[in-house]
Amino acid sequence: MDPPQNFDQFSLKRILMNDTQRKMIAVEGNFNGIQEPAVVVIEKYAFDEASVLNVCNAQTKFKKNLENDIYKSFSCVPPYDENISSNKMDIIYPATDKHILKFTSQPLYFVQETEEMYQTITLPHILDSSLSLQWLYNCLEYKSEKERIKYDTASENQKDDEDNGFLLLPDLKWSGKLNELYLLAIIKKRNIKSLRDLTINHLPLLKNILNKGSAAIYKLYGIEQSQLRIYVHYQPSFYHFHVHFTYLMHTPPGINVGKAHLLTTIINNIEMQGNYYQKATLDYTIKESDPLFNRFEEKGILRKAKLIDESNNA
Predict the structure, then answer these.
(1) Where does the chain hold its CATH 3.30.428.10 domain(s)?
(2) Where does substrate bind (predicted)?
């Protein structure tokens, strides 16, 4: 049977798979009412320079989704076809060198950070070089993104809200589609920078995030806790403790080894040893142009790799 030349007679039966990481969808259907099934796989091409220029064209239509301090998020439709799915565009302006570094492709290295390395190298770097948290304080003080808050522990009149409370907000990377669910639990306490600061005293906070965050997501979206990936980044993008909630069928950046630590594992580790994260050696990846890499290099802990050009050895 000759393959069909167009989709005029295609009947969709069901969606087989929607891969949010690869931007690919597979569907089952048939042509011309014939019983033989057909599988159709559609995948978006990667951006090239011309497509970026089209997206950024002056004729592009923009719909603002968020504005908080230096961060803005838009939906945008290129001028050449208003019927195609809109793209998501985030703008950081004015951007710092740390913002530029975050989105720059660089060689990666593994760090095995001991307690001593954290105290003498990493912590001074954090204190010297952290990004501004004004956008986050705007959220905690209800000055920005109030309408985007999906859950607030204060709504339940918790007596210990200041110590164990948090806000549940959509991450900037979430498109809004349920199968790409991505929420952040941002704690209200302001003295926990990262995983390294967690002790046995923070177990009520961590369990509150795990249980109430999961319950809120189930109430809002019908997604069970067993379908959620709940984790913490180390190193994080910003140094105010927060927890990531993503749908298990979605594969966003930052869920790999060397970045993500499951919240349930964190709780179990602290229950076994109250100061586990002060004493543990933590592995993570670091970019070559990161100022923290330079500090490790100065101490002789890391060194830049000399990549061999295999084409010269052929």
Answers:
(1) 108-299
(2) 135, 145, 171, 173, 233-244
Q: Which residues, other chains included, contact 264 with Cβ-Cβ below 8 Å and sequence gap of 6+?
A: 210, 230
| Mean pLDDT across 224-253 | 95
For residue 199, give Cα distances in angstroms to 17, 23, 188.
41, 40, 17
Note the pLDDT tens digit of each residue in 228-241: 999 999 999 999 99
Residue 237 is labelled as binding a ligand: yes
Tokens of 297: 């290099």
- CA-based nearest residue to 136, from 68, 210, 211: 68
Q: Say whether 39 counts as a known binding-site residue.
A: no
Domain 108-299 architecture:
2-Layer Sandwich (3.30)
Q: Tens digit of pLDDT for each residue in 34-57?
A: 777 887 777 776 666 666 666 666
Instruction: Assess whether the previous peptide bond of 235 is cis (omega < 30° from 0).
Output: yes
CATH number of 10-103: 3.30.200.40
Supply the residues annotated as catalytic.
242
Please give the pLDDT value at position 101.
73
* Pair 208, 153: CB distance under 8 Å: yes
| pTM, full prediction | 0.78
Q: How far apart are CA 57 and CA 146, in angstroms?
A: 31
